[in-house]
Amino acid sequence: MKHIPQYLLLFLLLFGACKSPNSGSPAPLTDDALMDTVQRTTFNYFWDGAEPNSGLAPERIHMDGIYPEKDQNVVTSGGSGFGIMALLSGIDRGYITRTEGLARMEKIVSFLEKADRFHGAYPHWWYGDTGKVKPFGQKDNGGDLVETAFLMQGLLAVHQYYVNGSGKSEDSAQADPALTAREQALAQRIDTLWRDVDWNFYRQGDQNVLYWHWSPEYGWAMNFPVHGYNECLIMYILAAASPTHGVPAAVYHDGWAQNGAIVKPHKVEGIELHLRYQGCEAGPLFWAHYSFLGLNPTGLKDEYCANYFDEMRNLTLVNRAYCIRNPKHWKGFGVDCWGLTASYSVNGYAAHMPNEKDDHGVISPTAALSSIVYTPEQSLAVMRHLYGMGDKVFGPYGFYDAFSETENWYPKRYLAIDQGPIAVMIENYRTGLLWKLFMNHPDVQAGLKKLGFQ
Known about the structure:
InterPro entries: Glycoamylase-like_cons_dom, UCP028431
Organism: Bacteroides oleiciplenus YIT 12058
CATH topology: Glycosyltransferase
CATH superfamily: Glycoside hydrolase 144 (GH144)
Radius of gyration: 21 Å
Shape: globular
Distance between the termini: 49 Å
Structural class: mainly alpha
Strand order of the largest sheet: 2-3-4
CATH architecture: Alpha/alpha barrel
Protein name: Glycoamylase-like domain-containing protein
Domain Glycoamylase-like: 223-442
Strand content: 5-15%
Helix content: 40-55%
CATH class: Mainly Alpha
Pfam families: Glycoamylase (PF10091)
């Protein structure tokens, strides 16, 4: 495949740069070099691996070329939101030039302007060559407000990156006026997409709750009001933040927080959690990632949670402690190999969680690696261990989605929604770039204030 030589070149460069001058054997990568290697290769999922017409993230990439549902050209809205943020980090780090990055963002926005939308909200999947919705399920063939929120989180970060011109130039210290004008024009186009999302419509008749789905064919048949806590916090914040279709604060307090019922102090693995986790005592780790790729949890609080960073760190530590205790005695689980989240599994796809019912012996690298902002030392230990396992778990787009040592199961397959948080959270740990951009958007600031966040 055309992407393999670039990957091999990167590997050889890193291998050569890290040789010990005395022994001739490779010296261990520094933490920074390791993070950069993982971030750069994961970024390539969204750069080299992008669907060519839309520029967006394919839902999945299978290195074996086997796609049972013939969906290799299907792109994902939420995963693309994460991927857009990964692209920003690549532009800022010089993985690609400012000009290259802008051209890709223009392609993406041009696609989004024409792709199927439903009262301003995007579907979970499109066909990348046409922009037509691909049903996520029989009745899920319309707007998906949660995935739309993930996409908008990324687009608002891009808006802030370009609204005044990025100020970066690969050729000189002086900004290129023509490039700056294109960047600012793109920011305005993103603002239009953002303002077009009709969050109020998804209250299904002005109820004080947001519904996940609406279909032009099946209406509200999916019937999924969203309550917390899970991965959907960002949806409620953006719904409140919208300058054109903003929902009242009561939608957050009555719907998401259910008039305070979201608060449920309890302990798991001896670690304190403050929130009620929907359907479980402690959720999969993507609940600590998806809303916080742009939303900075550091010191963030409202009347239901005294510190979202501490809560998400504790959720991560619960997950780690469970894997170390390893009650089902899976091979490989331990202090340097932990992490349960939604991913491919030994039997299809599963939301792996830190309990014996939902633990299938599968490690998903995104779980620990995307928690690096919460548990840097522990997550870096996992990163180093996994990197040491070599090409069994690491390929041209970073770590493969999941594996099981017990089952000797090492599929060379990727999912966008798992790759994106790795690159984004590594960048947030290193520089806070995506947090700074998203949190600096004036509408986001207004939405947080409206809901009583500090």
